[in-house]
Amino acid sequence: MKIKKGNLAIEAPIKETGVIKRRKGSQKLYVDFYYFGKRITRSTELDDTPANERKVRSFLNRITERIEDGTFKFADAFPGASDQEKAFFTQKEGREYRPEPHQVLFGDYAKEWMENIYPTFGSPTKRNDYREALNTRIFPYFKHYTFYQLTSTTLFKFTESLVRLKGKDKGKPLSTARKVNLLIPFRAIWNDACDHYRWVLKSPFDNLKKKLPKTEKKEHIVIRLHDWFKFLDNLETHYRPIAEIMILTGMIPSELGELKREDIEGDYINVRSSYVLGEEKKSLKTAFRKRQIFITQAIRERLQTILDRSTSPHVFLMEDGKRFNSSRFSKIWKKAIERAGIPETTSYSARHSFAAWSLIIGVNPLRLVSLMGHASKQMVYEVYGNYVEGLEDDAEEMLDYFGKDFVSRKSKSPVPFRDSTGDSLGSSVLTTGTI
């Protein structure tokens, strides 16, 4: 450092900052100094030799000069420091920390994202799906990649490596639809990182879909009536009226799990919320899913059987008395399907069957839109309309099963619900009251 003395410029002694040390058990030199009141200890990765010690001292002296003239940048001097440290000191220096994509590891940013962004998702299903995809697939593969290395080619190689991890198809490639779903949380992290660091980068996801093989959209199978009766015969007795409520109303397991006695009022079942992955959701999939379902005589008979079995405030329970659980029920459903020897279906097929059967027996499509909780009849025709063909032969038996009051909405037997003691719980389907 030069200072002026009269007309002469002479070299002033350099003020030394920090110390050079060697840690026990290590042959490398370390620097140790304070910056904005914080102690900084870093390995130089240089062996402990006199020549290297002179290099390190020169490095520390340059740090001193730059700190004094206000040009020192911690992030540039220590590129291997954590993002938190870089951000902290950059802010102290009066600058904005904006690392480049090649300086940020996906794993480091994703860890922060899981701590700060992930918990804000209100949907337990979404959180569960994201956590599983990230922990089992994405983190193990990409945690050491920088964002600069994340290209469509890199992602395509990743998707090509994806196989089933368990079950009878273990080792077989995943479907394109499943691969695309796994990339959803990956894309969310990418977008948030670009927004956070204000990067303007070409998304590696833009052209990826074009490289993946196209697969036909899987259709939900509609159950034929005679297969439905075979299924019921092979379903555990406790769950038969529950399964029948599903196919008579179009309700899904998560809605059953949250239904309370107080939600059955007068002539209607009020679907207001759902129970997903052990959490109560006050909002449904869409605003239209909040709906009223008219209680027909067929529905009433099954509900009475279910209500007589317990005094729980929740209507639907597992056989052991615990809250109705869609995951457990799906396994029970699958076993009954296998025992019955009928085409494979899931419990969600009951909802699709309800819609298809309703169209067959002449329910007004606009009313079906309301019963299903959709926004418009377009959904009814596009998703369920193509399942009608081949079911006409079952129409008369379907009408008997649902009951004519399902179509006309008039009850023939206004019998009130009872509790397990035989006392009346409220109104008939033609009067008002609360169960």
UniProtKB/TrEMBL annotation:
This protein's source sits in the domain of life called Bacteria
> PROSITE patterns in the record, alphabetically?
TYR_RECOMBINASE
Domain Tyr recombinase: start-end pairs: 211-400
Q: Coiled-coil annotation: which residues?
A: none
Protein known as: Tyrosine-type recombinase/integrase
Q: Which organism is it from?
A: Geomonas subterranea
